[in-house]
Amino acid sequence: MSIILTAIARILDLAFNIYIFIIIARALISWVNPDPYNPIVRFLHNATDPVLYRLRRLLPFLQAGALDLSPFALLLILSVVQQLVVSFLYQLAH
């Protein structure tokens, strides 16, 4: 049972890290004027827009004019959840 929990913890840790890098890439491309028809740009928007939209609706103060802090807030939330979930699964495995 501990091997399965360790494997699940590692997979979830990897999934969180991949999504964090997707959010960082999305934030970086927002600084330039990317081609909206580029498949990579479309993927980044499709992967992050639903979560960022909900976060902006929940916390409207994250958007102050042209400054959008919702990706930063999402990165913080994901990092905390990642640490909690992964460490909990590792402790269950041991």
Question: How would you characterize this protein structure?
Answer:
The protein is mostly helical. Helices cover 77% and strands 4% of the residues. The chain has a two-stranded antiparallel ribbon. Helix 1 (2-29) runs antiparallel to helix 3. The termini are close together.
What descriptors fit this protein?
single chain; 94 residues; mainly alpha; two-stranded antiparallel sheet; 3 helices; 2 strands; elongated
Oligomer: single chain
What would the average pLDDT be, to the nearest integer? 92
**Net shape:** elongated
Major β-sheet annotation: 2 strands, antiparallel
**What is the ordering of alpha helices and beta strands?**
HHEEH
Cα end-to-end separation: 10 Å
The radius of gyration over CA amounts to 16 Å
Briefly note the structural class of the backbone.
mainly alpha
What portion of residues belong to β-strands? Answer: under 5%
Helix content: over 70%
Q: Which blocks of ≥5 consecutive residues have pLDDT under 50?
A: none
Q: Counting H and I runs of at least 4 residues, what is the number of helices?
A: 3
Number of domains: 1
Draw up the topology in text.
Elements: H1 2-29, H2 39-58, E1 63-64, E2 67-68, H3 70-93
Antiparallel strand pairs: 1-2
Could you give a quick summary of the protein structure above?
The protein is mainly α and 94 residues long. 77% of the residues lie in helices and 4% in strands. Helix 1 (2-29) crosses helix 2 and helix 1 packs antiparallel against helix 3 (70-93).
